[in-house]
Structures are given as C-alpha cells and as structure tokens.
What we know:
Blueprint: H1 2-7, H2 9-20, E1 88-93, E2 124-127, E3 132-135, E4 138-143, E5 150-155, H3 169-181, H4 188-194, E6 195-202, E7 205-210, H5 217-220, E8 223-224, H6 235-238, E9 259-264, E10 268-273, H7 278-281, E11 292-297, H8 306-314, H9 326-336, E12 340-341, E13 352-353, E14 358-361, H10 372-380, H11 384-390, H12 407-413, H13 416-425, H14 432-441, E15 445-446, E16 452-454, E17 457-458, E18 460-464, H15 467-470, H16 474-483, E19 487-491, H17 496-502, E20 507-511, H18 520-524, H19 549-558, H20 566-581, E21 586-589, E22 592-593, E23 597-598, E24 602-603, H21 624-629, E25 632-633
Parallel strand pairs: 1-11, 2-8, 18-19, 18-20
Antiparallel strand pairs: 2-3, 4-5, 5-7, 6-7, 9-10, 10-11, 12-23, 13-22, 14-20, 14-21, 15-16, 16-17, 24-25
Helix pairs in contact: 2-16, 3-4, 8-9, 10-14, 13-20, 19-20
Amino acid sequence: MNKLRLLNLTAVAALVLAACGPAATTQAPSGETAAPEATSAPEATAAPEATAAPDATAAPEATAAPEATAEPAEIIAQNLPDVPRNQSLIMGWSIASPIGVTNPWAVPGYTHQEGNNLMWEPLYYYGIFQSQDIPWLADSMEYTADDFTQLTIKINKDAKWSDGVPVTADDVVYTFEGQLNNDKLAYHASFDQFVETITKVDDLTVVVDFKIPAPRFKFEVLTLKFDTGIPIVPKHWLEAQPDVNAAAGGLDIPSSGPYRLVQWDRTQKIYDLNPDWWAVTAGRIAEPAVKRVVVSNIGGQVGQNMDTVAQRIVNAEFDTALDMRSAVIGNILEQSGGSVTTHSGSEAPYGYLDWWPNSLWMNTAIAPYDDARVRRAMSLAIDRDTIDTVIYEGAQISTIYPFPLYPALKAFTDSPEVQALVAKYEPRKYDVDASAALMTEAGFTMNGDGLWEKDGETVNAVIQGFEGIHSDIVPVLVEMLRNAGFDADVNFGNDAYQNMADGKPGLYMFGHGASLVDPYAAFELFHSRYSAAVGTTAGNNRFSRYANPEYDAILDQMAPLSADDPQFKALAVQALEIYWRDQIDIPVIQWLHRIAYNQTYWTNWPTAANPSLGENGAFWAHTGLLVITNLQPSGAQ
Length: 637
C-alpha cells in the first residue's frame, strides 16, 4: 500500500501544477470593485513575505465589538491630477492594513509591504546580488572601535523630510532611543541587548556605543534589505503625538522617501512622486521616471486567483505583482509574446533565490512535537529528491538548511566541518522504515487506517499554508507524510497564519526570514528568548517555541563575534549540529521569487542580466524603492 501511495505523487503534483495555470475565463471573486483604468484594482491575492505576518490573516472584524472595529474612513484626494499610463506604475498586491496607517511605529497596523516602503528610507540599503552596502540617508556608517563596540554615523547634508525640514542627528537619535525604550517596536530587543549609549556629536554625526561587541548590528538592524532593518523616522512630528504607537500617520506624517500617499480607498493606494525628493539633489539617483505608483488591491485570501493576476500581467493592465508558481510564470511568458520578463528572462527557473527558505515548523513545546524522535521521523518521510524532480523540473531547490545558500552561506555549508555533520546526521535522508522505527521507539503503534497512534490520538500533521504560494508543494508533502503514517492534510484557510502564531497542533509551512551573509540570524530564530509560552501568540514568525540552554549558550557566545572570527565558525557548526540533532524544524525548500515584469511601459527591471544596484526584484520589500526609482520608460504612449 505504501509503495502504491508513493507512486501517486507524480499524479498529485501534475494536478497541482495544472491548477496553477492561468485561465482567462476564471471569474473574479465577488465584491471586488473596479477602478479607473490608470488605477484599476486587478483581482487576485498577495503572498506573505519574509518575516512579516500576512496581513490577510488578521482576525475578521465581525469577531470584535462593533464600536471597536469601525473601518477607518477612506482617504479620497480632491482634484487628483491625471497622470498618463506611461508615467504610472501599477502593481497588484493584497491590501489588508487599516486605511491611513503610514507611521512605521504604528503598532499594530503598519506594514511596509503595501507601498509604504516608498515613503521611508534607512541609513543604508543592501544589494544582495552585488554584495554591497548602498549608503542612503547616511554617507557613512562605520565601526570606530576594533572590537565592534562603537559605531559612527555620518548623515547626508542634503537629506530632508517631505515638509522641507532637514533630516539630522536628532532624528537618528530619536529613532534609536525609541527602539531602545519602546518595547512595542520591532527592534527593541536588539537595542536592549546591545546598545549602551546614543550620542549626537553634531547635526550630522551620531555615535552609538555598545554594551558588548555588536559586529552585526550595522547590517542586521540599521540596514534595510528584504524585510528587515529600521527606517529613520521624523522626530519633529512623532514627538508631538500623544502616543507614537497609536498615531496612524495618514497624509500628515512627513517622510523622506520619493513618493507621498495621496489616496487610499478600498480598491487601491496611490502614491505620487515628491518633486523635491532630497536624493535627487544629493546625487544619490536621477529623478524617477515613474510619477505615480498605484498599488491595486487584488484582495481575497492570500494567493487566490493567480490565474486572473497572470492574465492582467499579460494584458499590461498592471506591470508586476507578487511572485508566482512555475507553471503560472511559464504560461505568462508564453502568452506575452516577449513583453514580459523575469529575473532569469525566459529561462527556468524564472526567478532568483530569495532569503526565505521554507520549513515545516511545529510547536515543539506540546506533544507529540516535543519529542525529537517524532520530528526526525517526519523529516525521514520527506523525499526531497522527488520534490526536486516533480515540482522543480530537476532544479535542486529542496534543502536541509535553515538559511538561503547565498555565496557566503554556501561557503559555510561546503566546509569540511559542516559536511562531516551532513554525513553524521543525514538530514536529507528519505527512509520510511527508519521513520517507522523512531515512531515505534517513541511509543506509537500503527492503527487500522495506517496511521501512527498513541493514547488514542494520531499525529496531527495538517499543514497550515498559503494557497497562492504553497499549492504546488504542500499537497505533495501531505502525500509523503500520509504514506509514512502521519495524519496529514492541508489547511489553506484564512486561519492558517493565526494557527501558526497560536501554536496550534499541526505543521506550519513558513520561511526563515533571517540570514543573508552568515548563519547567526537564522540560528537566533530558535533562541529561547523568543520561545513564547504555550497559550500565547508567537511574535515575529518564530513559531517553534524551542528552548535549550545548551543551544542558547552557543548563540550567546556567537553574538559578539564577527563572522570571520574562527571561533564564530566553530560555534556555528555546533549550532547547526543541534539544529539537525534535535530536528528543531524540518527544512524543505529554498524559496524562489518568480516575479513577472511587464515591459510594455517600463524597462530596466532588476534581473540577472541587469543587476542594477543588486537589489532583489520584489517591489514589496524594503528595497522596492530602489526597484521603482530605477525603472525607465519604454517609450510606449
């Protein structure tokens, strides 16, 4: 029976891939509202990105008292000027945050992924595909102590807010002190762990002194890349607010970025270019050709109706949207007649390696997932070679690591020390018999339905995930797990993310948004300081609730060391050994961003052939500002 079920995997995957293909006749979901052509709201949904909780999974308003859930009023521009289509960029995304929230310190409610990344800027950006720092609000940001206990920041003299007020050291100090003292802010824990003092030297200079060496603070905290890092916020506006976490921002909050919000209704957000953007004067960049950015609300549950999204890209109704599955992107390229490209052009894999490798997470604080033998048994049920063959057309996308294999991380995994661990723990091994032996050792027996059972309970292996991004891989994983005796199924419902955050029984298909240049940030996801108690919500997508003093001690020793320190590497090897020994979660695949770029109106998209500043091509990431401001018009009218 088990062999027959395994043989069905190819058929399952074929059905999944067929279901992902675009179909021009598919109806849009009811309730979506059309908008004028230049600002149309394409019907579809958006995928969650990196470390941010998908906004589409917020609790429905109907579950709260009416007086507490009144929807914010739409922001409707009076006498909104017309902007030609060939000066407008239209992007499909699911807008689910409260209307009017543009303040990065608004908690909860703010997200950078729905266009607000065009308003806010950091001291530095990072271009992953050029492996380079990109100075922005700061001209320089350098460690001025050999032991990484001091950082000196020099601010660009031309930087200013949209209201004309200069960006100065006061804003940087205010931003840093806010993170240090306000435990509602995302990087409070990092500031609290490392920062001793923050000193304004002069109007353009700030010095940060650290309690302990902080070699990764500049990169991990103060640099924007993918979905991590902090923007600088305006002191003169925020300090006048009664509660900085409750101030929505709306149209009033000054920002330093190239675009300003001018309209936000239930179908779209519209941002217009600030003609006085400081970065042009400062010589950071030429004046952007894109004069208006429209984020069209493609609505619905995360990732639904991707066939409709695909067709609208082919039709040039919008210029880009969220990343897509292989079959969808292939059909887009075939139908577009050359007007659409991807990171790899028209060649597979149609995308680039993202920073978000996906694992099957689980709540390791509750039975039976608190037993490492059960976790290892489930990993042994995963045939990663079949995943590569059936889903990724032979590309080696499956993984055994909790971080993306960018060059520096690949060098670490290729080291003799790590390869010795691979030989010892065999994290890629597929062996249903070995899985069964572990389950038997853990006290489980196979029941009449072919499922492992203990004390009358089967192993809940329902996989929580997101249909738009997981519909190819999750059904295959379910079949593999059931083939090995685990009670697996799929939940792509609106409650999927909340189930992960709440630590419900089952498995969670989600990424590790962390490491880019060394493995510390990925390992830190499992430090016990982030192990939320059972019955509480896990924050910042750290779902495992793993707690191990031995592992914590290793990470605490790694934290003050630079990645080129030999002791750092030795400790990283120890941390990886525990990750595999304890099977903290089950790594499954590296993540590919397959993003379609329509070139009818806009060219110079970042691709492998045109790496630009090295920014990744996701417009919803922090570096999306660089993507959009570097686009060039095609000449189409």
